[in-house]
């Protein structure tokens, strides 16, 4: 795998440190809650909706951070970037489609003759568009 900015990958090593810091913060908050709340209220806070919500938010935050860091590193899978030199030129052909082009002063009509000449020109062009 090729990385566009591999210097961002070292930041992934900080994720375990962040997990430890968040765990320590949660532990200190629980310690403070235990000091100020009764045992029954503390157990309700600890096992209730708020505790699960905080855990889900933390997991989503850390996962999002990991994915952002990987995206910043720019993984390139199965691709090789190389410069391609194009030969030829871009062409634009304008053709008059008015009623006067159907005049048959030249056999076939001017329009048919123009189509024929354009097809001949296109067949001779190799790398041009």
How helix-rich are the residues, as a percent range? 55-70%
Radius of gyration: 35 Å
Low-confidence stretches: none
Task: Give the biggest beta sheet.
Answer: 2 strands, antiparallel
- What is the strand tally? 2
Number of helices: 4
> Which class best fits the helix and strand makeup?
mainly alpha
- H and E order: EHHHEH
Average pLDDT score:
83
N-to-C CA distance: 35 Å
Number of domains: 2
Give the overall silhouette: elongated
Q: Spatial order of the strands in the main sheet?
A: 1-2
Percent strand: under 5%
Structural features:
single chain, two-stranded antiparallel ribbon, mainly alpha, 129 residues, 2 domains
Produce the secondary structure layout:
Blueprint: E1 2-3, H1 15-36, H2 39-47, H3 49-73, E2 75-76, H4 110-124
Antiparallel strand pairs: 1-2
Helix pairs in contact: 1-3
Short description:
With 129 residues, this protein is mainly α. The chain contains 4 helices and 2 strands; from the N terminus they run βαααβα. Helix content is 55%, strand content 3%.
Q: Explain this structure to me?
A:
The chain is mostly helical. The chain folds into 2 domains: 2-76, no CATH class; 89-129, no CATH class. It is built from 4 helices and 2 strands; from the N terminus they run βαααβα. Strands 1-2 form a two-stranded antiparallel ribbon. Helix 1 packs antiparallel against helix 3 (49-73). The longest helix has 25 residues, at 49-73. The radius of gyration is 35 Å and the shape is elongated. The chain starts with a strand and ends in a 5-residue tail after the last helix.
């Amino acid at each position: 795998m090729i990385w566009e900015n591999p210097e961002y990958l070292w930041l992934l090593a900080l994720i375990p440190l962040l997990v430890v810091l968040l765990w320590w913060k949660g532990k200190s908050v629980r310690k403070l809650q235990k000091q100020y709340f009764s045992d029954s209220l503390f157990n309700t806070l600890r096992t209730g909706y708020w505790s699960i919500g905080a855990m889900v938010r933390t997991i989503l935050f850390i996962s999002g951070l990991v994915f952002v860091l990987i995206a910043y590193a720019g993984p390139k899978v199965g691709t090789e970037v190389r410069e391609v030199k194009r030969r030829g030129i871009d062409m634009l052909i304008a053709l008059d489609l008015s009623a006067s082009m159907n005049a048959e002063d030249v056999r076939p009509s001017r329009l048919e003759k123009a189509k024929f000449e354009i097809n001949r020109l296109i067949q001779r062009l190799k790398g041009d568009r």
